Structures are given as C-alpha cells and as structure tokens.
Amino acid sequence: MKVIGGFTLHKFQATQAGPAGREAKGSILSLRMGINPNSSGYGIIFGAMFFLPYSVVGSLLTGVMASAVDAALERYRHAQDVAERGKRAVVPILWGLAWTGFCAAWSVFLSQILMDVSPWLCGCISVLVAGPITYLAYTRRTDRCLMKMTGVVTTMGLVGLFAGVVFLLPFLANIGIFPGLMAFPEFRLGFVVMYSYSSPLALALTGVGLRMAGVLRNSLAMWLSGIIYVVLGTLFIIPLLPVSPPLSEIGYAYYNTVGLFFPLWGWGVPALLSAYSLFRLGRERDEDPENPL
Amino acid sequence: MRIQRIRFEHFGGIIGTQAPVSLLWVDREFLRARGFHGGPKWEGEDPGLLSAPVEMEIAVTDRCNLACPCCYVGSSPAGRDVSAAAVLKALKIASRMGIFHVAFGGGEPLLHPRLLFLAHKARGMNLLPTLTTNGTLVTPSWAKRARDLFARVNVSVDLVGGPRDIRATFEASLGAVATLRDAGVISGVNFIVTSDNIQRLSALFEGARAAGADSVLLLRPKPSGRGRAVYRSVHPCAWQQRVLLPVLLELGDKYHLPFHLDCALTPLLLTCGVSGDVVDALGACGCIAGDLLVTVDVDGMVHPCSHLDLIVGPVEHLPRLWTEEGAWKGFRRRFLSLRDKCAACPVREKCRGGCAVVNQHYGLGLEEPDPDIACWVPPH
Per residue of chain A (293 residues), what is the pLDDT tens digit? Predict the structure, then answer.
C-alpha cells in the first residue's frame, strides 16, 4: 500500500497476457469509474456492492478492467508510434521548407540591393544557409523540444515557403528566365512586403528556437527582441529617413549605413542563431529530456 | 474501450479511458510491461504529489436565469460571461498539464453563447468535458449538438420545497433529462439533500429513473454563496445522516439506479461502517480540493474548490503554483493535520475530515473536524 498526494493506492494484481504474449506484470493501484458531473461527485456506489469484501471488489475490478485496458493500450501505443513517426518526419521537412522560403526571399532581396552581386551567388548562399539548418533539424528530429518548436512554426513555415516562391519570381525575372516580369516595377514594392513578412518569420524561427533552447528564458524577452529587431530593421531599410551619408545609391533607392548591411545581419543573424539553438538544444536534451527550455 | 491519455507519475501513471470513462492508477511495472516508459518522471525522489490535477472545473459565466436561495455561487441574471479566449487559455493549460476532465459550470453555463464551441475545443485538446445545468434551457436541438461533445451532462433537480428556486419545477428539470436522453447524451441528476427533501428521495429516484437518468448524484448543502444564509436550516441533522446511506442503497436496488455521493457526503459512508478499503478500491474519497481538483472562477483565478474563498493564483500560473505547497494554505493533505478524535482515526485518509467549506463558514481551523458530520466511528 502506498500513499500518493494523500491517497492510498492499493494493488490489484493484473495477470493478463502482455502485448508480446508474455505474462504481463504490474498492478492497477486504484480505479475510478465514471466521470464527475461537476467535480464534486467523487466516488461511485453500485448498490450493495459496497458491502462486498475488499478482496472480492478488487478481483471484480481487475477482471473486468484489466483485459479491456490491455487491448486499448495496445491500440493506443500503436497509434502513438505511427503519430510519432509522422511527427518526426515532419520536423526536418518543415524546417527545410521554412528556411528555404526564408532564404529564397532574402536571396531576392540581396540580389536587388547589391546589384553587383550575382543573383546566382545569392541563391547559392541561401542554399548554403538553409541546407545545414535542415540537416541539423534532421539530426534532431526525435527531440521533443524541436518537435514542439516545429508545431509552433508550422503555419509560418508553410507561409514562408509560399512567400519564398512568390518572391522568387522577380528573382527569376532578374536573371532573365521570365523577362516579361521586369515590365512590372511594382514588384519592387514586393521587397517591402517581403521584408515585413520575412523578418517576423525570422523572428519566429529564431526566437522560438532560442526560447526552446534556453537562450531566451521567457516569452516576453523573445517578443521584445523580435519587435525591436523588426522595428529597427524597418526604419533602417526603408529609404524614408534621411540617409546621411548615403553610402550607396543603387539606381532606385538609398540605404543608410546600417541598412546597407541589413541583408547580412537581418538574414545571417537568424540563420546563425538558429543553428546555435539547434546545437544547444541537443546538449540540453541530453541533460534533461523533459525540460522544454 | 479507448485510451484518452496516459499521464506518467512517479509511482507509474494514470490512464484515462473513454467508453467507459475511467481513471486507472497503475504502477510502473504495469506500464513497462505494456511498452510504455515514464522517462524522467520515474527518476529522482518521489514528490509525494501528483504532477497535475486530474480535473479542472471552469466557471464560464456567473449569470443564471434562476436565482435559487441556496445557490453555491450566488448567481443571478445580472452576472457576466467569461470570454471565450479566457476559457480557452484555461483549457490549454489544462491540456498541457495533462488534466483529464474539465467540468463547465457557472452560473448557468448554457447562457454562455459559445459553450458548445468551448466544449468542441476541449475535445480537440484531448480533454473530456462535462456540464452541470439547471436544465431550463435544454432544447432538443441543443441536446443533439451537445451529444458528441460532453462526456456527461448533469441536470440539477430539486423537489419543490427544496433549496432551489420554486419556479424550476421537478418535472421541468426531469424533462430536460429526458430530452438529453432522447438525443443520446449521457445524463444524470444532481440533487442537494436537505433536511426537508430527504424524505422524498424515493420520488427523486423514481422520477430520475423514468426520465432516463443513468445515475443520481447526491450533494450536501454547502455554506457558500447565497447558500450561507440557509445552510443551517437545510443541513440534514444527525439522525438523517445516519439513515441516509441505508435508504439510498435500498432505493438504488429498487430502481436499479446507481448513485454517487459528493466529496462532502463521502464521510457518511465511513461513519456508517463501510470499509475504508472498499471506499478506496472504488475510488471514492472525501475532500479532493487541491489534491485532484482545481477550479477556475470567472476572473480566471484558481481555487482548490469552487466553494472555497482561498485564491491560489491566476490560472496561467497554475503549472508553477501546483508544485508550491504554500500556495494551497494547508488544504492539501488536510487529514494529516486533523486533531482530536480524527487524529487517530483509521479512516481519516478517506474521510479527510469532512468539508473544509463548513469549517471556513464557522471560522474553524482546517485541523478541526467538520462539525456538521455526525461521526459514529469508534475512537481508536
């Protein structure tokens, strides 16, 4: 007999065959049939059953419940295994998609701002960034924290892929695959839209990663740093503020000093931090697999 | 049978099942032999505490279309509904903590415009929702929509002359039970046993059986809300308490209707000579406030029990508060601090000293036994 949280747990020995056909061991310690209608009706009485000897009640409960529970547990375990396998497969796929979309968007951005850089080079850099992160996610695919992170960024990741594909069009137009698209300068407005989307996506991917990996200890810090990141980035990149001195005049827009290099820190920092988070995540898991941070 | 979820605990785990609904406490060997492993929860020292409650009661409104004189929460038509977002927040926390059952209450929860949406969300979070209603707003179409959402709906029924508002008649309430039954909703009746209506239990069982209730839940009057004003006059006296269990057993057999006793009435089983082991084996227990149950009020504050004034903290902090013994101000494992006759009583773990709300009402400390339970257990 054992007392847990003030409740005495009795043992009813379960002797039904286990899942592998072997003799299953273990005990049902206590059983509550039914559900509380209003959380105050705790307990159950079936007429005169209450006056049956304890040993008889115990045997009845064990006999009635144990075999049904065994079969249900077997089904539950099987369903859980399938779901777990599916979730594990989703982890690298989703992280790959999210980062591919994010990097595609940024490669367009880079190629438009740094006109003298080959768009192909930007594309290669994108793949170089997305690839290792995807691979890291693959190696950590069984990590519970990463699976939880994946759950958080699922929608954003897929939308990120969509955004990446959309903004890939002007990129492709630039390199001459779809020359007709160049006739639409409105596409340039898309950069602002792309920025305003891809920065929060970077925030989601990085911030959630940092939070889960324990670098940021609370959600408030995560959101605050994200907001600062996006607001400052926006102020720096959009050529509405006085640009003094204009270090760069690239045909159609001005960028101030920080803005000029924004493609590097606005893109590279999330990538580096995400990679760092994934490394750290692995270490923390080894120390405490239950810790979500 | 279907498994709702397994929550690993230091001693092994709790298995929640559906169809039939049950909670099984099992040891580690039981789970290990069936291919499950509890991970870190099976390591380290025994915390002597469950990792989370098993049930959460959520007040979704404090409005009520009735204004019963002994309402536990003092509801009236002038109350307010809790926003769906706030309820969802509580549900998310419940799901994350591994709570099995959530009970929507009020006020009259059917007045909440998004009740079915909330129940649907609870199901989606792998929680089993239940509901208590006065039945006056139950319609066939509502019952049909509620069928696949609620694991159980209980209708509060009181005989005329009982504590409930006289406008809500016995027949009308039982009509709601019949409507629920016709729609395929598992339903039972709640009945507050008072000194006045205890003699009419037979009519209750007969009516409940005819309406299609699957069980009767008998509740003890509690001095909370407006019920404080009438508590002393309606509480069953000592001899009524003594005859209650034999009468209920006889009625249960006669009408083939199972009955439950609420946590505040469970001590009566023990004082009437039912073996503590049998009570335990069937999962019956006295006060479970703060040990297995938490409640969330309309302001989003957690209490050990809906009748207790003690505020533990905001529901968003529940995962942390659950492990802080000090936040529960002695309500947990209260039986350990019981004194006088209860100190050496062999069934104090099950009885748990009676209802703490009564002690609160009389200004007694938690270490005192409930003064309104007539105990015949011989002193040890």
Answer: 444 444 555 555 555 444 444 455 778 887 777 776 554 445 556 555 566 666 666 667 667 777 788 889 989 988 887 777 777 777 777 777 767 766 766 666 666 655 556 667 767 777 777 787 777 777 777 766 666 666 665 665 566 566 656 656 655 555 555 555 444 454 555 555 555 556 556 666 677 667 666 676 666 766 676 667 666 665 655 544 444 444 344 444 444 444 555 555 566 666 777 777 777 766 655 544 444 43
**Inter-chain CB proximity A6 and B336 less than 8 Å:** yes
**The complex's ipTM?**
0.85
Here the CATH number for the domain that contains residue B119 is 3.20.20.70
How many domains does the structure of chain A reveal?
2
Domain that holds residue A54: 2-75
CA separation for the pair A223, A230 (Å, rounded)? 10
DSSP A244: S
Indicate the length of chain A as a whole number. 293
Residues in B closer than 8 angstroms to A53, CB to CB, are 278
User: Both B146 and B293 in a single domain?
Assistant: yes
Q: Do A39 and B57 touch (CB under 8 A)?
A: yes
Q: Which of B70, B342, B94 minimizes the C-alpha distance to B221?
A: B70
* CA gap A188, B233 in Å, rounded: 80
Task: State the total domains in chain B.
Answer: 2
Using CB atoms within 10 Å of the CB of residue B123, give its burial: 0 to 12 exposed, 13 to 18 middle, 19+ buried: middle
Residue range of the domain that includes B17: 2-42
Instruction: Indicate yes or no: CB of A69 within 8 angstroms of CB of B15.
Output: yes
Q: State the pTM of this model.
A: 0.72
